[in-house]
Amino acid sequence: MSLNTFGHLFRVTTWGESHGPALGATVDGVPPGVAIDEAQIQQWLDKRKPGQNKFTTQRREPDAVKILSGVFEGRTTGTSVQLMIENTDQRSKDYGDIAQKFRPGHADITYFQKYGLRDYRGGGRSSARETAARVAAGGLARAALAHLAPGIEVQGYMVQMGPKAIDRSRFDRAQIDQNPFWTPDAVAAEDWAAYLDQLRKDGNSVGAVIEVVARGVPAGLGAPVYGKLDTDIAAAMMSINAVKAVEIGDGFASATLTGVENADEIAMGPDGPVYSSNHAGGILGGISTGQEIVCRFAVKPTSSILTPRKTITVAGEETEIVTKGRHDPCVGIRAVPVGEAMMACVILDHLLLHRGQVGDAGGVIG
Amino acid sequence: MSLNTFGHLFRVTTWGESHGPALGATVDGVPPGVAIDEAQIQQWLDKRKPGQNKFTTQRREPDAVKILSGVFEGRTTGTSVQLMIENTDQRSKDYGDIAQKFRPGHADITYFQKYGLRDYRGGGRSSARETAARVAAGGLARAALAHLAPGIEVQGYMVQMGPKAIDRSRFDRAQIDQNPFWTPDAVAAEDWAAYLDQLRKDGNSVGAVIEVVARGVPAGLGAPVYGKLDTDIAAAMMSINAVKAVEIGDGFASATLTGVENADEIAMGPDGPVYSSNHAGGILGGISTGQEIVCRFAVKPTSSILTPRKTITVAGEETEIVTKGRHDPCVGIRAVPVGEAMMACVILDHLLLHRGQVGDAGGVIG
Amino acid sequence: MSLNTFGHLFRVTTWGESHGPALGATVDGVPPGVAIDEAQIQQWLDKRKPGQNKFTTQRREPDAVKILSGVFEGRTTGTSVQLMIENTDQRSKDYGDIAQKFRPGHADITYFQKYGLRDYRGGGRSSARETAARVAAGGLARAALAHLAPGIEVQGYMVQMGPKAIDRSRFDRAQIDQNPFWTPDAVAAEDWAAYLDQLRKDGNSVGAVIEVVARGVPAGLGAPVYGKLDTDIAAAMMSINAVKAVEIGDGFASATLTGVENADEIAMGPDGPVYSSNHAGGILGGISTGQEIVCRFAVKPTSSILTPRKTITVAGEETEIVTKGRHDPCVGIRAVPVGEAMMACVILDHLLLHRGQVGDAGGVIG
Amino acid sequence: MSLNTFGHLFRVTTWGESHGPALGATVDGVPPGVAIDEAQIQQWLDKRKPGQNKFTTQRREPDAVKILSGVFEGRTTGTSVQLMIENTDQRSKDYGDIAQKFRPGHADITYFQKYGLRDYRGGGRSSARETAARVAAGGLARAALAHLAPGIEVQGYMVQMGPKAIDRSRFDRAQIDQNPFWTPDAVAAEDWAAYLDQLRKDGNSVGAVIEVVARGVPAGLGAPVYGKLDTDIAAAMMSINAVKAVEIGDGFASATLTGVENADEIAMGPDGPVYSSNHAGGILGGISTGQEIVCRFAVKPTSSILTPRKTITVAGEETEIVTKGRHDPCVGIRAVPVGEAMMACVILDHLLLHRGQVGDAGGVIG
């Protein structure tokens, strides 16, 4: 991964700022012959789209994607695909306050220190608006996966908001699309709604934990030792705005286990190995086992809040800042489709890498 | 990052297996003029070397590094550096059991499923022995950092073994080199010694959490949005054997915070911005703030244990496995210098990247 | 270089087809603070623009570039820059003939064999229209060079059309912009005009040789042994449509020389080494010497001609083909600004690479 | 391609200097299951080995290759392969003259200007000795090709020495292995022997042209637009020491042709398209046609000659230099196996890339 590109063979380069004319993803290494149209990609963008309820920013963006290249007569041609989303709701308001002050906990200050200048309009390139491009690329990745390896399913959902985690005994996959938090726990959804509403009114924000799983991934994907599947998932998730932690399978909890407890014992089923448990989160030695791939990541609270915080100006004067604008009280909500997109891209990338280096040389047990 | 290489400009490619004749690191993009010799690198390898006490594997390897290229008259020439470590204590014992059976929780099965064959001697390429090459490369990275940006310091230490975390109130940096666990908490060190000794006698193993910090890193390093400093740290740590989780700054705990709590407020000091706290772990928007960079990662327990576990053979027959060999009861111990090495490499890489793309264009506050 | 991206640090990814809605270049690794606007880039696109005289295709494209990202208040921000050119003159005529038949000497057949489908409208991705995106990226590279290393000048010109080479004794740099062939030999320009006009009327086409020089490049650029300056120039030029050969300095003629003849002897001037000659074309061991960098490349004749040629259809039937459309009788003409753009990109890329790996560690003679 | 690595998926990183303890190639992305041993690789190294006759350097190096990793029980495991060649005949003579003076036409001066220091012993990293590592990697690439796509054959030979080109009417492939110049023209071989002997006695050297062909390459390899097959071949050949020019098919001669002449007309044969000619050298639009791939490159004369040439010292003093040492009077001879190795690597790389991105989606005609 380098600068604005991620992926080895399926390479996604994103571009664009929060308040520029447009943003998008230039996607290279796309397999040819994949059936795709704008509507297919749009469904995933709609999931991430701002302004859908009171728990996300009130900026109104249709986030309509246009395919500008790489697709002919409804199929990918194998050449680079350009996915563009035009910005339409960039308010021409006064950014004076943010232009001179740095928001604590925000990339304002580091972009300035790094580049000597920054596009302060809505956060410029550091804005989470960049993730729209990822979701578009993820939609293309999903279509390619459906073409090459039908049966792979990627799904994300929220498992914690602030200190409030879901109750795993209430986990109901059918609930995920039924609430604004993409959570499988309907009781938590209600609790969070009240909690977040209050935080929003208080001019505050809160963090969250998202879980993303991939089902149906065949055994054998991942390229040790620096292109491991978990390495690339970790990088992909950590590259999302506001993410501060990533774990695979039992993650940090695996540090508390003994070797006896942590062993996912193996039996032989009709279609190959069957595991007694999935502490590993579907990855051993950086290679998929065929089990469900399980990843979680933590999103910190938005730094753009209405409560005043101490900060300094570009000139070095001490002051306070209040961020008015239109901001998400819990950016974790919209991080769900972003995490899904990253997972879809990583899995497709490794499917192509594996096909390239290994082909059908893999071993069959039994 | 791809396959066996990591880094953008400072590129480290490792090679070698646990029981092959040698292993090493081919290091490209090394700045010229760096004073280096084998002794400098050796000190870090000695820190990771097996067989130093009863808490690590009893394999006896001197892990003596040889510099085969890229250095002339005590200085790097700017060409690729080859760092080779010969294996000397590969026992020619019978690997029959492991050759046919897969250790639960180990990469045995996925390497076979991926590649159609595997080097079962000591785990082959999937062995943590590969990390010796990383430590060697890290030693070179430290020398280059000392040359280009004196004052940067990278240090790792263990903060948790199994369920037993250190007490931060006892944190004493001077203790770190005084115990076999590289822990800053002398009381924990004693407690862990007894705990791990019992686990070892029981034929069991345990996980751990390691913290790595980098001090003195200037503001401005990191290349958004896919070469973010935290993205690359996450990938670097997750690529280490047995690592299942990575976090930066407050990490998963940041999910529990509100925006008001999480804000690292900024004041103006004599040398630039001063932060009231470091929830961010020294990275905002993927770019270093100039604060201490703080990373933690979790290592799962070794899967090679003396307690029998259920598994299958290559032929698909169900059986049990007991791993005799010589194994670490807590691989987290030797992961400390490995984590340090990865951090040093990532920071050097970003120093070079920044110098290349940005040079001295960065902004000065005040 | 990989797929649709070229460059190491200054990375240009192009996208778009001849008859799609738009094409462009996603440019990553751009140094921050470079003054740039659309007009600056447009001047180079205007040089390549079709339909300017009877010697180039009659397709009328304004080739107006839009900067969609990475520039704020007239300066680059260090983030990815999107340069988009909308297609406006894609005729909705019948492509039936080309859709089913393969033009001999054209990529029609190999794109089909590779990808299983192709965008036959105007050649799709294989069209030289892609080079507009290169010229746009080259304009940005020139601006960055002017910012970082003022005094570097890149210039291309045609030195041969078909069998007719220029007379070097008439070489007059001032003539280059005075004729439609960008040639420094005014006599050749007149001769070629008549020659090409006849070929065009005959429904034929012809090849050409272009020379591109870079003046003012400092000594020390180029990264041995696989990122040599000449290696990257060769790749850059060979990647241009219809190019079949590349040479540096004396090129193929150097094979005919003895070591005594080929030696560019070195004396000491007031500002450093002075060479008696430049057989090397300004590059030794893959690193610039400080002399003029000289590169030549050969462009084959357009395969899209009005004279019937034998071919086959997708179904494998033997037939003949005549390509009507609007085509350049000598694509070499418009390859001049493309070659310049590639040279500018390569030099900027190596300036950044050198700054990143080496900084100011280079040696000074005397 | 970057710095010391070439290739996209089959990635070769070379290391080592002329007079260091060893040199080698770290090869990543090797397909698993390829039968390989040291003897197979050695046969190609023996072809390049110095000191075999009076027309090459008298340095005596066995160039014995050792496989240090990535191979188990006679087959590649899919992990990184280390190929090491120890240097044995580095004479500990006085290099004082070369240490202070720069050879005209040699990389001495540019390495110093770039890196601020250089390993002057035998040219250090800039020595053609580095190409031994390429030949070793090429041997591995040939074995992988034989495994994955039997029938692909790569062969190089010399077609010109100084001004003396072969007579194509005498082209006899059986002659290639019968003379010290690897030329298919037995008459030229005799002529060149006398010519080169005289040049050697005169303390002079001479350039050459090598042709490398690949037969049996399937249609469809090559990744437009910056990973074109010819782009990568051009880069690979231009990266070889002393190479100044590369051409594909008719190369520079194609500039002299009209479109009517240049068209390789297509008919339908029993196994697919049949071409009337091969002006294109087997590549259209950067993708292989299935015809023979034909590449030529020019090698300049060795700059290390016994005839005195004017130069300067590191201190900037004007002087003369005579290079005693042991040098090839025509480095083109040993460039033959190097060119073959590069071609084998590029084709394997593109076979893997194609398999990864496209798989079996390619189109079949008829």
From TrEMBL, chains A, B, C, D:
| Catalytic activity from the UniProt record | 5-O-(1-carboxyvinyl)-3-phosphoshikimate = chorismate + phosphate
| Keyword Flavoprotein tagged | yes
Keyword Cell cycle attributed: no
Any single Gene Ontology cellular-component annotation: cytosol
User: Which cofactor names does the annotation list?
Assistant: FMNH2
The cofactor note reads: Reduced FMN (FMNH(2)).
Question: What GO biological process terms are annotated to this protein in UniProt?
Answer: amino acid biosynthetic process; aromatic amino acid family biosynthetic process; chorismate biosynthetic process
Pfam families assigned: Chorismate_synt (PF01264)
CDD domains hit by this protein: Chorismate_synthase
* Similarity comment: Belongs to the chorismate synthase family.
The entry's function note states: This reaction introduces a second double bond into the aromatic ring system.
Q: How does it assemble?
A: Homotetramer.
Question: What is the protein's given name?
Answer: Chorismate synthase
Q: Which organism is it from?
A: Ponticoccus litoralis
- The primary gene name is aroC
